[in-house]
Amino acid sequence: MPEKIAVVTGANKGFGYAIVKGLCEKFIGAVYLTSRDEIRGKQACKDLEKLGYNPIYHQLDVTDEESVTTFCSFIRSQNKKIDLLVNNAGVLFLKDSKEPKYYQAEQTMLVNFFALVDFTEAILPLVNTNGTILNITSSSGHLSRIPSEDLRKRIGDPNLNLEGLKILMKSYLESVKLNRDGADGWGDSPYVVSKVGVNAYTFMLHRRLADKGIVVNCFHPGYVMTDMTKGVGSVTPDQAAEVALRCALQPRGGLYVWHNGATVTWDGPDPRGFIDGKSV
């Protein structure tokens, strides 16, 4: 039987690193730790080797077309296919960030949505039949976080295709550029829009790949203590990774999985209150 392959993006630290560590324990096959920064990625692998694990490193910047092409060519050259893909790479500008509003929106949408989609589409031919794709999302990705009812209907329309979704996400950036994101019903958070886009893509992709038995889910890990949050949070990366691993290794399809393992309805009422006990 060919060796199975798992790939984790954005995995040199934090939550991605914890997922790689967990996969090295529980996934029967090769685990690829990928990162934009090659030096940091290789150091992360060395740190894991000191703990007795054996991940394999490969450079991958999901925002760089050449890097994505190189990675896909490498996987293809192995004459193997990917059994588990975890799309973890992401960015978050905190409320005290000083960068201009449009820059924050553009970079957030580029990394969290457009790059995730383009990389996934590029790697799809190399994902095994009956494989799994897990997109790391957030409570911010719940459809209720978009204020406009009209936008919610358009984004949540099961007949919406990928091109239509991309057009909607680009229209958000246009709204920000014109300083109309609030007036146009998008709200004031690029992170929310990016993760709503990721979730919409998740369910769309799951429907698209159903005949191949490929399961696509999205997972909200909770408020994880990482560099992205400046160390603030309610769960450690290892704690969050435990639930993510269950979702990745024992998947049911087309689900939005919360940090406690519960499944929530993406286009229903805001689930934060009755699941977490408070709004975050």
Task: Please give a structural write-up.
With about 280 residues, the protein is α/β, with parallel strands linked by helices. It has a single domain, classed as Rossmann fold (3-Layer(aba) Sandwich), CATH 3.40.50.720. About 45% of the residues lie in helices and about 15% in strands. The protein contains nine helices and eight strands. Strands 3-2-1-4-5-6-7-8 form an eight-stranded mixed sheet, with helices on both faces. β2, α2 and β3 form a beta-alpha-beta unit. The longest helix has 23 residues. The radius of gyration is 18 Å and the shape is globular. The termini are far apart.
Helix content: 40-55%
Mean pLDDT: 93
> pLDDT below 50 for ≥5 consecutive residues: which ranges?
none
Largest sheet: 8 strands, mixed
Distance between the termini: 46 Å
Instruction: Please give the number of β-strands.
Output: 8
Question: What is the succession of H and E elements?
Answer: EHEHEHEHEHHHEHEEH
Oligomer: single chain
**What is the count of helical runs?**
9
Number of discrete domains = 1
GO molecular function: carbonyl reductase (NADPH) activity
Protein name: Carbonyl reductase [NADPH] 3
InterPro entries: NAD(P)-bd_dom_sf (IPR036291), Sc_DH/Rdtase_CS (IPR020904), SDR_fam (IPR002347)
Pfam families: adh_short
Q: What is the secondary structure topology, with strand pairs?
A:
Layout (H helix, E strand, L loop, with lengths): L4 E4 L5 H13 L3 E6 L2 H13 L5 E4 L5 H13 L4 E6 L13 H23 L3 E10 L12 H8 L5 H16 L12 H20 L5 E5 L17 H13 L6 E2 L5 E2 L7 H5 L4
